[in-house]
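User: Good morning. I'm curious how manganese (II) ion would be positioned relative to this chain. Could you predict the structure with it bound?
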Amino acid sequence: MIDKAIEIARNGQRFLVACHRRPDADSLGSALGLIETLRAIGKEATLFMPESVPDSLQFLMENEQGISAVPDGTRYDATWIMDIAAKALIPPNFPPSEVSGPVIVVDHHHAHDDIGDIIVRDTSASATGEVVVRLIEELGLDSIPEGAATPIYAAIVSDTGGFRYATTRPATLRLGARLLEQGVDPWHVAYQLFERWEMARLRLLSAIIATLEMAFDGQVAIMRVTREMLAICGADDDMVEGMVNYARRVEGVEVGALLWEWEVRDGAGTHLETKISLRSRGDFDVSKVAGALDGGGHRAAAATQLPITIEEADTRLRAELSKYFGSDSPAAHA
Ligand SMILES: [Mn+2]
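Assistant: Good morning! Here's the predicted structure, ligand included:
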């Protein structure tokens, strides 16, 4: 459906561009890359950002404001949502269709839900940032617009873990080279994304690693993070991002898991649920486990959120894993 998206980009004038809920570098980087592209072809493009942008991504926002609500009376020719595969990830206050116009999804995940009127999806792309470059080419631009290069590079570096994951293809590295040729500063991006941690985040890492338990004969490592741990460390939920990778890092582990006590705010106040983040070293498909627990994701990275306590989530996760890894021997604390 890329042709339809290109037609809308050419014929429309005013666009809204949104990220998925709790924006990450790929979602925000692709959104900013697309916004700069639409502006380069003479269109109006506005970033829809109803949530706060994590500190590690603030460097992308230097020249961008974003709006948290659509001004009364505004109508868009289309609204683009970047890097989204599940309905639950539609951002808060997302405008109704009479305001948004047709919704165009630009993504690289295997779709979990049916979202959007027009889908531009390439599951072979390492990042949605790569799909944006495809749009740039289809629009007939001969280069990546200035201002789009750094956000697109950030999107790709982030989703490939610094060009390390199996999703890194020759085309990914060629695109990386092209972006560097356009003047992107690789260390600036890597430093902001990976190498600049607040003290509270290091304290949180230490606390999370202290909970690490080996299970299923060393094939699975399970960690947890509770509201109390976050409070003690002075940390917030954004800082939990990526922590699950430390569980996978243990030698011999096939699956790393993080149980994350999650505060849900709704009309009735707040209550606790549990997110489960899963990472595989590559041989085992964690999206099967997440899928069986009402979630989804990729082979190597998947997640779910369940309306149960962290203890109950731990039990359900182990029951699901036992279908693949045999019965769990008594847990040995690392
Ligand atoms: Mn992505």
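The CA atoms of residues 214 and 263 lie 26 Å apart. DSSP finds twelve helices and twelve strands in the chain.
Let me know if you'd like a different ligand tried.
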